[in-house]
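Deliverable D4.2, example record:
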Amino acid sequence: MTLRDFREKVNLGLYESKSRNLKILKIINLFISLTALVILSIYYGFPQTEETSIGLISFIKFSFGFYVLHYLIRLIYDFHPSTFIKDNWFEGVVMLLLVVEGIGDLFFDRLLLEPLLIAMGFDSYTDFSTIFIQLYFVVVVVAELMRKGSVLPRIKMHPAVLFIMSFLGITIVGTLLLMMPEMTKNGGGMNSLDALFTSTSATCVTGLMVEDAMTFFTFKGQIVLLILIQLGGLNVIAFASFLALASRFGVSVRQHDVIEDFVNEDSFLSGKNTLKKVISWCISIEIIGSIALAFAWSNGVEFRTLGDRVFSSVFHSVSAFNNAGITLFTDGLAHASVSTNWAAHWVVTILVFIGALGMVALFDIFEPIKLRERKAAPWKGFGFATKIALYFSLILVAIGAISFAVLEWHGVMDGMSLYGKFTTSIFQSVTRTSGFNTIDIGSVGIPMLFLFIILMFIGASSSSTGGGIKTSTLSVVLSDVWRTVRGLDHVHLYKRTISPMLRSRAYSVLLFFILGNGLFIFILTISEAELLRNGDISFLDLVFEQVSAMGTVGLSTGLTPLLSPAGKIIISLSMFIGRVGTLTVAFALGGRAIESHFKYPEGHTMIG
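Output generated by the structure prediction step:
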């Protein structure tokens, strides 16, 4: 009997039990994954005695063993083992790592990778395992939810609701984690309101902080911030994949045309592949950014170990690409040790600009197949959406940089070198979408603060991690205004005609942001009346803070720590609505309306 005949005989014997057993294992896998996440949160979030530590670690070891067993059973049940290993290579690598470490723990009473990680500068293997294990379990749970034939019921739910619920879920989990004692250096955790505010800010990649991330949070707390930023950023730029997942919950395929503006794809049925592409590009960019930052830090930045240098580089790379603006330096990049670290400033600038450009534009500009097409046919240019994102972003950067240089040359930049002023002007203009600062924003003059408000209101490009009304909305509105002024019959932009539906969406998003900011600014004048009355802040500070929050920017004149409890709730709502609001509105407006076969008589009135 050949090996092939033996394998075929085994497959026939396993066929009848395959579906039932794999389904049972899938349910158990999901239960253990969720339970392990809770166990890990308790283990790393609260002080442990020797007895409780042993008990919790025992369950974690058991869960590792189950994952290895689950992987092997799926491998045995698969009719093509070699193809299974190839398609699940990453999971296979993780399982191999768990087996190696299990052998080391069982026979040598130590983890085999620990000496390597300690040599890299990590204080202990626990620091690394905190990152790796938690991220792994998150990946397992998400992968289980996204796998075809998921055990989850086919719930009928609007995609916009699912999108909002995903952000809400991440925010709530982040809030609970930040409240744990081990997350803060005072050993008491954050109070619930501050934890909610911070979690919302990190998840919505805004960057407004009520506490200093450098001095207030422990390494574990900083890890939580990093994970929230990454998940929040990916949740935005992978919106198309998210809706593809939503289709498995009963969303009609007809509704997928709404996502066309977001991903510019011909088909949305390959959500898993789209998600893989988005994640791989994002992680690759962040890794390159981390390496660049690791070499860019100046000698003035004192790191205790190589591990600190690596972690700081990764944290700031992820924060910059996702336009979060959260740093591990007091006062941001205006901290004395990095305020003149021009090389690091340029790396952050590039990462922020790329992140704000949007995945649609990045794929169009840098994807190898697109590069080959343009090389073979030089007459082929960028796509319509890419032109809007790239050209308008460059124009806004130029306007912001020139204005900042002119208005603050002898102001906040007084005393800097010529190169320093040039770098700072570009940096602050680019980071209008992220919240990073290399100067004290509170010391910037009123004219530039007013211009910052306008730039933050406009924000980044579609399909990016940045907020605001987006460059696409601005381009459509300006084109329509130009059509009106010139008396043209159609709205044109880059030799394309803008449809009435697209114009309607643009004006709706614009109106949404104007009314939203206006309403919250009015409420803030009530909740922060005492600060205004005492002269601690000005009305412009309130406007700046609100627009920064709803635009998910994160720049602040110093108002954030002074906010009242009501003010923190308002700003938290602004960050959340600003993060999910425009996409939700665009989705709702793009939905298929019930066709009607009648119309009212046309009305006419004077405009203006």
